[in-house]
Structures are given as structure tokens and as C-alpha cells.
Amino acid sequence: MTVTYDVVIIGAGVIGSAVARELSRYHLKTAVLEKNLDVCNETSGRNSAVVHGGFAYDEGTKKARFCVEGNRMMEQLSKELDFPFLCCGKVLVGNTDADMEQLRRTMEQGAKNGAEGLSLIDEKKLHELVPAVVGKFAMWSKTSGILDPFLYTVALAENAHANGTEYFFDHEVTGITKGEGYVLHTARGDFRTRWVVNAAGLGCGKISDMLGITGYRVIGSKGNYIILNKKLGELLPMPVYPVPSNTYMGIHVTPTVDGNVTVGPDAENTEDFAYYGVPQKKMEYLAESASKLWPHIRKEDQIRNFSGILPKWVDAHGAIQDFQIEIRDDIAPHAVNLVGIESPGLTAAVPIAQYVVELMKEREEFEENPSFNPNRKGIVRFAGRSRAEQEALIRQNPDYGEIVCQCEEITRAELLEAIRNPLGVSTMTGIKYRTRAMMGNCQAGFCQMKIERMLEQELGIRPEEVVYSRKGSWVLSGKLREEG
Ligand SMILES: Cc1cc2nc3c(=O)[nH]c(=O)nc-3n(C[C@H](O)[C@H](O)[C@H](O)COP(=O)(O)OP(=O)(O)OC[C@H]3O[C@@H](n4cnc5c(N)ncnc54)[C@H](O)[C@@H]3O)c2cc1C
């Protein structure tokens, strides 16, 4: 059966989720089609998680404008949507005259872009801010920060959903038919819609082609990372970057909102948009490079690695272009086409989404949704609370008294709330990203099977049906022997 929507958004990364939330302010029947089994399963969950200040982008670009705007609104967004955000600042550390020259240029560019809180600091001030760093001077960006990219995206999506947006996971758009409106084809049925938003991240070029807007060259730039043990977080109060080049920010060390440290990324062009493996050699290279800035990266503290791939729109000569956000009335009216939403897409997501809605409203009047509620509450964390607060939580719900993930102190109550999430996500990583269970030092060695069993029981499914992350990534493949 064909369903009719006002808007269908393709992609449930941070951009698609932010667009969904902005559109839910209006009286529109909106759906999000996502090929994976959860939000934030691609680039939005695979990055440095830094809320950038807006100084690193050319004046007059959308990257600069939306980054500065996104930076300014992050505090308010984190209050409305209840996700972890820390305005901790960040430093770009230099040693040579050439570094100083580049930092001065970066400061000037930042001032033109409207980036706030930038200053050049000497070695003494640098060591007051980050005692364990190596460097002679730095540019300090006071308004830069860090956030939890999973919880941010989940929060945007849950808020959109609470305000009426429908989510369809495991729905890859494989073709688009244009006529009166659009019909989006998926293996699980067709979706008829008046408007389409292409927020497909690494798939933006393919969707653009399906819309008939051809000619975009989108290349992948892969960045690898190492994750360090939580105890290292104490030595790193803010992200530490080297002096950037014009196109690459360099290998940096970044604290996470939970106290881990990430080291990376390097940058290598790739045509394979689905390979996220991190070779040992790359990890060694990352550790060696970042140790020049911050010499605390030991092998025994490396608990995991990951990688992410940026979709970069480049011209015929390979020069990286600005974010493209367009409606081509001549070719694909009522289709918002977003191409090359690379860094700082995480920081800029909400201003980008507001711009998308502005473009749509220039072509159609939208009626406000009087029941729109901007607020959303996340899962209450047990770890880190005072003894009295923890006792109160246990009295209220005895499931807070059972710790399932020992490394991160995650309780049965939190896991059950995650399993019963409003978007209906039922993967192991869906639970992991919503609670931090399985993210600690033992990397799920202790709790993975307990959580797998909880999913079986809660969802009434068989062990062989539990999926780790992607379609077909079964946790268990079958029984070794039949009982009895
Ligand atoms: C290494 C690295 C470091 C970064 N660091 C930062 C940083 O510190 N700060 C910052 O602001 N930004 C950073 N970024 C950039 C930021 O992560 C991205 O700009 C942002 O996440 C892009 O979001 P998105 O929603 O466009 O893409 P995605 O998160 O990739 O979402 C697109 C979604 O579309 C889905 N999709 C694709 N094709 C289809 C289809 N045919 N049908 C249905 N669904 C489809 C995908 O499955 C995916 O879920 C970094 C990126 C990388 C890779």
C-alpha cells in the first residue's frame, strides 16, 4: 500500500533528526526513512564529538555561519533535550614562528566569522589550562565544547517522534519516481510524499542522482581513532589540537563527556563507504603523532578503536566545497538536497535544519503545530549520583539496585528503559549508546550476555534473533547442542 506524507526525510543521522525536529514544529505528516536499524549508526556517531567554535572555516561559507550559530545554541539545546554537553573550551597548540603566524590567521578568520571567546595564550596560561600538554603557546577557544553525539542524535529524534514524526528503520531508499510529488521506493514498500529531504550523509550523492540532480562528486575521507581508558580523562580538561592546515585539523586528543579520551583522526581518501576497520599500523601512527602534543598515550590504556568517514563534496579539481543545501525548482521541486555535510555538521545540525525549513517555507506556508513541545527527558543515570540520590532511586524502583554493567555502573532499570525506547530500537548497540553499558574497560566481557538475555525476555524473541548493530549482525548464530 502507498502511504502519503507531507515530508519524507531520507537518513536518521544528526542532520535528518534535526530536520525532523524542526519540521515537527509544524502541522505536517513527516516520516524518516533510515536504512540502518537505529539513528546515528553512520557518520554522526563516528567523529570527534567537538562543538566547534567556527574559526576554522572560510568567511562567508555556510560551514562558518552554521557552525557559529550551532555553537551559540548548544547550551540551550542541551537543556531542552537533556543530552550531555560541556562547554570546556579547546586549545590549538603551537611551537614555531610559522605556527604563530597560522594561529594569528585563524584568529582573524574566527573574528570575521563571528566566533567568540578566541585568544592567544602563552606557555604559562596553556599549562594552567592543560597541565599535561607539550607546547610553547596556543590559541584558546573558550566557547568550544564536547557532547555525546549518540545521545544528542537520539534526543533530537525522540523529540521529533514525540511531536508526531514517524520513524522507519531498515528502510533503504533504492529509487525515486517523480510525478505529482514523489514516490520513494524501499524493499519494504513505497512512500508517497509531497516533499523529500535528502539527509543521507555518505549516500547524499546517490539520492541526489535519484532526484535527477546529477553531477555532484562526493568523496569519502576516513579518519581513525583510538579510545583510552577513563582514568586518562582527568589529565585532559579540554580538547588539544595541533595548529591546523587549511583543510585538515590534525590529529588531536579529546576528552569525552564521560571521561574517556579519543586520539585521532588521521585522514585518508576512500571510495569504500562501508569499511570501518582500524588497522594496527594506523593506531600506532595515531598514538605516536598525538604523543608529541600530549605524552600520556600508553598501549595498556587503549580500550577500543573506531573510525568515521566524511562525505566531502569536491569540484572537478578535487577542491573541497562548502555545504550544499538547495532546492532545485527546475529539476526537483519540493526536494531539499543536502550534499557534502562534513565537519562541522554535528555542531551545525540545528541551524542547518532551520535553514532547510526556511527554504521550504519560501515555497509553501506551514501551519504551526500548537502542541509542539521542545523538551525531552533522557534516561536517568545512576552512576555518579550521591549516595542519598541512589538510595532514593532504588526505593522508587528496585531495578536501580541491580548493577548489570559493572565497569560503567549501569543498572537494570536504565537498561530496561533503553530497551523500551520510544523509537522501538532493539539492537545491542542501541542499548549501548543509550546507556553506556558495554563501553567500559572490559568492553562487554562481563555484561554482554546478560544484556542479550534481557533483550530476548523483554522483546519475546529467540537468542538467534538478537542483532548486535546492523542487519544480519547476529550475536549468536545457533546452539552448540540441543537440550535433552
Ligand atoms: C572523523 C570525523 C570527525 C568529525 N568530527 C566532528 C566534530 O568534532 N564536530 C563536528 O561538528 N562535526 C564533526 N564531524 C562531522 C559530523 O560527524 C557530520 O557532519 C555529521 O555527523 C553528518 O551527519 P549526517 O546526518 O549528514 O550523516 P550521517 O550521520 O551519516 O546520517 C546519514 C544517514 O542516512 C542514512 N542513509 C544513507 N543512504 C540512505 C538511503 N538510501 N536510504 C535510507 N537511509 C540512508 C545512513 O544510514 C545514515 O544513518 C566529523 C566527522 C568525521 C567522519
Give the structure's gist in a few sentences.
With 484 residues, this protein is α+β, with helices and mostly antiparallel strands. It contains twelve helices and 22 strands. The mean pLDDT is 96.
Our count of domains comes out at 2
Shape: globular
Give me the number of helical elements. 12
Strand content: 15-25%
Low-confidence stretches: none
Rg, nearest Å = 23 Å
CATH hierarchy class name of the largest domain: Alpha Beta
Fourth-level CATH superfamily of the largest domain:
FAD/NAD(P)-binding domain
Query: Averaging pLDDT over every residue, what do you get?
Result: 96
Ligand catalogue: flavin-adenine dinucleotide
SS content category: alpha+beta
CATH-defined fold name of the largest domain: FAD/NAD(P)-binding domain
CATH architecture descriptor text of the largest domain:
3-Layer(bba) Sandwich
Cα(first) to Cα(last) distance is 46 Å
Largest sheet geometry: 8 strands, mixed
Q: Tell me how many strands there are.
A: 22
Helicity, in percent?
25-40%
